[in-house]
Amino acid sequence: MKVGIIGLGLIGGSMAIDLKRKGFADEIIGTENDAVNAAAAEKMGLVDRVADFDECVDSADIVVVAVPVGAAVRMLPRILDRFATNNRRQVVIDVCSTKEQIVRSVHYHPLRPCYVPTHPMAGTEYSGPWAAMPGLFDGRACILCNTEESDPKAVHLVERLYDALNMRVIYMNASNHDVHTAYVSHISHITSFALALTVLDKEKDEKHIFDLASGGFSSTVRLAKSNADMWVPILSQNRDNVLQVIDTYIEKMKDFREAIDNYDEDGIRSLIEKANKIKRIIR
Amino acid sequence: MKVGIIGLGLIGGSMAIDLKRKGFADEIIGTENDAVNAAAAEKMGLVDRVADFDECVDSADIVVVAVPVGAAVRMLPRILDRFATNNRRQVVIDVCSTKEQIVRSVHYHPLRPCYVPTHPMAGTEYSGPWAAMPGLFDGRACILCNTEESDPKAVHLVERLYDALNMRVIYMNASNHDVHTAYVSHISHITSFALALTVLDKEKDEKHIFDLASGGFSSTVRLAKSNADMWVPILSQNRDNVLQVIDTYIEKMKDFREAIDNYDEDGIRSLIEKANKIKRIIR
Fold first, then answer.
1. What's the predicted TM-score (pTM) here?
2. Cβ distance of B213 and A189 shorter than 8 Å
3. B179, B203, B220: which to substitute to probe chain A, counting the most A Cβ within 10 Å?
4. What are the φ and ψ backbone dihedral angles of A171, each rounded to 5 degrees?
5. Which of A220, A242, A248 shows the shortest C-beta gap to B198?
6. Is the confidence at residue B209, as pLDDT, over 80?
7. What is the pLDDT of residues A167-207, one digit of tens each?
8. Are A253 and B252 a contacting pair at CB < 8 A?
9. How far is B150 from chain A (nearest CA, A)?
């Protein structure tokens, strides 16, 4: 099996490592349009060879689009166009964090059945080929969207790919996917960004942040290191859902503000105890 | 050296483990007013013996008050009163997360010099004697407040105690301490509580939270497991500082909201890139 990976960053690179290691791929061809990242990925041996976009798409049995979702939306129709010319059975997946717009971008493409939208729920706050690591996907969930619009054989191949990465596959339609990820994933990035901005704004003396930051602050603000190239298109493509969650979140902040402002210790306690219920869900 | 620890939870218990292990304490006497926690601490061998409050205070050379700050404020004058009766050189420290009110509570006490206000910046989101662990304080910062109001010999003893725990000691006045901890520590707890409330409110189907929560969400929401008994008095005692930070934080959230609402990708990018500067400070 030849796997072509477009974008050799954290996700594409980590996939390359494990698909080779687990024996799913015989050969991995990568393409990366940032010259430094491409050279680093080649030097680190993340892929068997680095090629240009066309060669990568033409030679692969399965193409993985692992670039920010804005670029992915423009790239996907071009890939299906090339598949049409190549005239052999090929499959393409994307691994982006929002799904509605990318699915819509090829809805009427004659080769739509060759495409399977996926979202492996794994990552770190780091990016680039140097952030790639073995085992990143291990034991995590991967969402497959709108599989009824894909060729069942393509879906089956993609299930085997994620099985090689030891991921639990979940099926969801693209629009539900975007609602749920707004609530669980996208809002936690925004709250971290806002926390970093607040603290940087106020703590002019950076040494104090460093001294006073116990483990709690570091873990809460960790996602604020996340890459703008990845997050700008996610927040902008998932605009409506994200706006709704932000509004709910601001309401909750205001509930805290009001209880503290009114010296209402019972109110503060009741908010904290409700929040504690997250224990049932997150280990 | 006999150490008396009042409150055998995460902080008191972890201190007991390491003060004994590092040889700072020959004997550790603990007191704990929750019967289950007291029995557990005794059974786990966290302390050499569990005693009542009076015996613990009377027999110790140094008393550590490791209870929520509301209770600590009421307890501290009583401890200094007992010291006056005991009529020998004794020292008391507290380890609470807010400092202005507790310092004020004994400002005019004749034995004020026997008290050293401290705040070891370490913890986890868990509580109770079963959360105690060796090495919790290792390499972290510990703040000593208003040391000019304490007997220099008492300060020196406390410095030796934190040195045994391998903490870096920082000196700050109580009011600056409360401002800085509001910005770095207290706000991150509130943002986590609010995140948990938002997600629990919206994700009626809890399985989705579990499925979709990648490492990022878990780390951002981790502090939402924190104990109400500890956090209600912190937020209420540090009211004015906390309200200010909440207001700044809500402004930052609204900046994100506005940029997303206006399809302003440059604006979103600029906010994220400013937030990324936290990298310089947090490893």
1. 0.89
2. no
3. B220
4. -110, 135
5. A248
6. no
7. 999 999 999 999 999 988 999 999 999 999 999 988 777 77
8. no
9. 23
